[in-house]
Amino acid sequence: MSNYIERHDRIFYPIQGDPMLGRGSFRVTHPGQLAVPHGLEVLDASRLPDFPLEEVPANALKAGKLTAVNTNRPGWESILDWKSSPAKKRVHILAIGDVGSTLLTGLKLLGGDVISKIGICDLSSQITGRWEFEMGQINLPWSYDAFPEVEVVQPENLFDCDMFVFVASKGIPPVGSGVKDVRMAQFEANAGIVKHYAKMARKANFQGLWCAVSDPVDPLAKTAYLESNKDGNGNWDGQGLRPEQVQGFGLGVMNARAAYFAKRDSKFASFLTEGRSFGPHGTGLTIANSLEHYDDALSQELTMLTVTANLKMREIGFKPYVAPALSSGALSLLLTLRGEWHCGSVFLDGIFMGVKNRYTPAGLETELLPQIPETLFGHIRAAADHLQEIL
Asked: Where are the alpha helices (DSSP H) in the chain?
């Protein structure tokens, strides 16, 4: 009897894992990922064990059609009936403040190839009215359908979409407040908002992608995942969002900030062609100056510049929201919709970890590197431990 399931020109391989803290499904790019499917080892080919795949069609892995499925997770069978969605997706944005309006502008101007419509929702009808009016007046002459239309959506229709973007935020410390970790100061207040909308997504049986853009991105992504999977009594039942349906979008701007400094100081130049970013949007982030010629001291220096860049903007006297709204928000979301590589936090090791990833017809794919230097892998592991302590 075969160990795999063939359906819709895809090969599904059952794996075992914790129903709550294990991954749900993902594209397999190395046989060893089936032996240790849930941990950070899936990022590093040198750390993966041998795993026989005699019973799986020989071309499945090479053709990118092999999908691992955690059969311990309730409702896993629904993944087998996956069908491709329309080429152009409907995107809904919750909260049109500084970040939301900047993100909206980016999607409007750049998303015509992959977005059909953008829905906006906010507590203030005056705000949504303003931005629907503004966005409706942005057009190319004689090519009036080049950009996606923007329309106001009511809360009860928030999850009638393919991509839900959570940009709501409460209690952002004002410029000059002296708060050192601005992101974590927002966690408690923003987590309460996430819980409310996670339950709404569950009730709506939302099958799209939940995108956490508000700070702190990575813990909020996990909050959305966990809370959507709780019943009316607060017990976990696995009937909500699958882990691969949630992603945190905060690493994009960190990667862009590292590139900013690398362009301005030649000692960091290797990052532009050989570097990577890993971990959360804030404490625990690791910028690798190079994967081929990793220098820990240089990487830590570049990491510190990147992590504190938002504080430097606050010292100038402004809230640091434009670059995050575009690099982590609009640009990363568009790469996601196009199925291209981007920076984002995906579910690994029981937390949402920032890595290079993309969505493919065979599922979520994380970049598989030939070998991650031991010191660098240690930083990634430390970041995961830190995130596990938060939530």
From this structure: 58-62, 98-110, 125-136, 182-185, 187-203, 217-228, 251-264, 271-274, 296-307, 309-316, 322-323, 331-337, 374-390
